[in-house]
Amino acid sequence: MAKRDKTPRVQDPFRAREQQTYEHPIPSREYILEYLATQGRPLTREAIGQGLELEHPDAIEGLRRRLRAMEREGQLIRNRRRAYVIVDNKELVRGRINGRADGSGQMMPETGEAPIQLQPRQMRELFHGDRVVVRVTGIDAEGKPEGELVEVLKRANRSITGRFYRESGVGFVVPESKRIHHDVIVPADAQADAESGELVVAELVAQPSVRRQPIGRIIQVLGRHVEAGMEIQVAARVHGIPVDWPDDVLEAAKRLDPEVPDQAKEGRVDLRDTPLVTIDGADARDFDDAVYCEPTPSGWKLLVAIADVSHYVQPRKPLDREANERGTSVYFPRNVVPMLPEVLSNGLCSLNPQVDRLCMVAEMQIAADGKLRRSRFYRAVMRSHARLTYEEVAAMLEGDKALRRKHQGLIPHLEHLQGVFKSLFSARKRRGAIDFETSESQIIFGEGGRVETIVPTDRNQAHRIIEECMVIANVAAARFLQRHRIGGLFRDHEGPSADRLENLKTFLAQAGLSLGGGDKPGSDDYAKLMEQVRDRPDRHLIQTIMLRSMKAAEYRPESKGHFGLALEQYAHFTSPIRRYPDLIVHRAIGHILDGGKGKDFVYSHDKLLALGEHCSMVERRADEATRDAIMSLKCEYMADRVGEEFTGVISGVTGFGLFVELDELHVDGLVHISSLENDFYRFDPIGHRLQGERGGKEYRLTDRVRVRLARVDKDERKIDFDLLAHPLNEHGEEVGGKRKDKARAKTHKAAKAEAGDKPARRGRGSRARKSGR
After folding, report:
1. Is the dihedral of CA 394, 399, 405, 407 positive or negative?
2. What is the rounded (10 degree) CA torsion for 326, 331, 332, 338?
């Protein structure tokens, strides 16, 4: 019998929250972790129960279930003596696996600390995306923490999409995702008549282990080639994006009334007469934000009304579980995989014009200088007065007479929005927010769903108006969470790491430039440098390197500010239809509006930590899937243009070649290093260039070039170019005269014949390229 611990302890601060769920309240997770920390040693379940003075059988059983749940979620693990040990100390860390094509991996800690490197032998029983606990074992040759696997908490992959092959009677699937390095063994009776070389979906029957490869069975044959219209299905399958709705979610959606019931409107602020409008893209199908602005003696009153998704999607219900799993809507060029069923995303939670909708409102007082003076949040019922597009609003503000007559009642309100935008934008410039010049493209489809053309997209003033309105509403939400000391998910964007900053400064020194701020430059230092190089011909190169020096934004329960926007607090509040973190923020705000306190909020800090990591992961997953789908469509578009010549810019430099992005089309492909001039090229990762050792010729990021399309592989989503001329001036002419190049002498016909149906490139170059992409 374990000795009863007599250490003085404070009352469980989360007891009120537990009483809402349990008749015989059990200690909260936070209290259990605090107790184990004070004991300073592993304890068995019996010892924990005695130490916390639990006597009722229901409370003891509740403790058993809670401890098991904390094990599953990685808060605790049990040692060989069946005693519990706290995870997330200096040695044991939990997080998610980020796989690499070479078989190694990283464990990304939920706490946001530095990634922990895992060697290939540690990855034998892991897939990309698995949630694990690792033990930090030391520091590798590059000074990065290194670890070993302790326990797998949750498997991320239920199925694998890849190419099926059969060799010597053995069937296996080679994953399409370069982040998954395990081939999946498929027994003879589980091959579903798939032919060698076909793209298939294999359900995992057994996960990998130290001594065994994963085993699967084929559940779908997608065909030999990725046909037009399949790119979205394949991208979603490859990256594990949920597409089909579970039965309980469909049933829950069916029970929703298509119209907002009268009782749901009771107790809300009535904004139906306020001329709120939605402003979105012409092809938008869901409208989750509406805006209204009016002048005040000292500035502006701005209303940002957001669809009240939290009213319909309740915690731990089927709709919420599926929204949590998906984490985000995934927007493909001609389709979307929504986070919520269509009855919500395009219906009840879409602020469609001239219909009643429930909303959560951020009402803000903006000073004339653009500073947020005061804000308050409240639930309301609204009626959008118009569904406007960015192009329409921009045209009206520029004086389009026909549109101004059509929407004459809204013109004063749109001009007020323009006024508050100018104030907010001036504040943005003063605080030193970074405003990178980025270019995006839009794929235009013709008859039969085939790609007709690819065009650049322009951001007009209406885009900027809505962007600034959403940013200030997100700031107000973050301040609300902090003011009321309630947990939520903040959108954190930290400054550059020490190694990235050192690389950036070395590069800038080579260009005769310097970055202010010493060892901790601020966003204003970045902004000043951007302004300094605005008129330089190599400004795009400098901007690209500066952008790559910064970390990616993440969702976390602690507010660390947003480096790029130069904001001390920032949380996503404005898109709960398509982002789960926004829904969490809405629930936190609603909890306070209902009289709750931070301590009795349904989400603990640890739960928010895991949610933040999950939401960051699914955001990255969606980005990768979208890039794959777009690249498939671009390959389809370029397949008939083999042999044609294009001008473009070097968009990436690697040890195996140059990536070139074509002008206007925004299509990129590879010029392999073996096709460059007869020289040995050394890769300079800091200078972002390839330099010939004998001739001294350099190929640098953002150099302009002329290339010929040599080959398109639609299945591999790869495009190869031959380099014809480098570098080019702003008129597309080669600097220093025409260069003799064997590739230049090839005729259009010869290039077509050479491309043909050759198999994918093999050997050293092919392997290097696979790992690079």
Report:
1. positive
2. 50
State the span(s) of the chain assigned CATH 1.10.10.
15-86
Question: Which residue has 């611990």 as its token pair?
Answer: 5
Average pLDDT over residues 18-35: 74
Tens of pLDDT, residue by residue over 685-698, are: 888 889 888 888 88
Lowest-confidence range among 147-156, 220-229, 611-620, 642-651? 220-229
Q: Is 359 helix (H, G, I), strand (E, B) or coil?
A: strand
Q: Output the pTM of the full model.
A: 0.83
Q: What is the crossing angle of helices 539-548 and 523-532, to 10°?
A: 170
Secondary structure (3-state) at 202: strand
The alpha carbon of 585 is separated from its chain's Cα centroid by a whole number of angstroms, namely: 18
CB atoms near residue 187 (< 10 Å): 12
Residue 180 and residue 160 in contact, taking contact as beta carbons nearer than 8 Å:
yes
For the chain, residues classed under CATH 2.40.50.140 are: 92-154, 642-772
171 burial (CB, 10 Å; 0-12 / 13-18 / 19+) is: buried
Q: Is 350 exposed, middle or buried (0-12, 13-18, 19+ CB in 10 A)?
A: buried
Closest CA to 73 of 609, 719, 657: 609
CA 12 to chain centre: 37
Q: Are strands 215-223 and 199-206 parallel, antiparallel or unpaired?
A: antiparallel
The first and second tokens of residue 750, run together, are: 């010869």
Contact yes or no for 327/339 (Cβ under 8 A): yes
CATH 2.40.50.700 placement within the chain: 159-224
Does domain 159-224 fall under CATH 1.10.287.4070? My reply is no
- Among residues 289, 331, 280, which one has the least CA distance to residue 308? 289
pLDDT exceeds 70 at position 268: yes
> Per residue in 92-147, pLDDT tens?
888 899 998 888 999 888 877 888 999 998 999 999 999 888 888 888 887 888 99
Gap between the Cα atoms of 699 and 116, Å rounded: 34
**What is the third-level CATH fold of 15-86?**
Arc Repressor Mutant, subunit A (1.10.10)
Name the CATH topology of 92-154: OB fold (Dihydrolipoamide Acetyltransferase, E2P) (2.40.50)
Specify the CATH number of the domain 642-772: 2.40.50.140
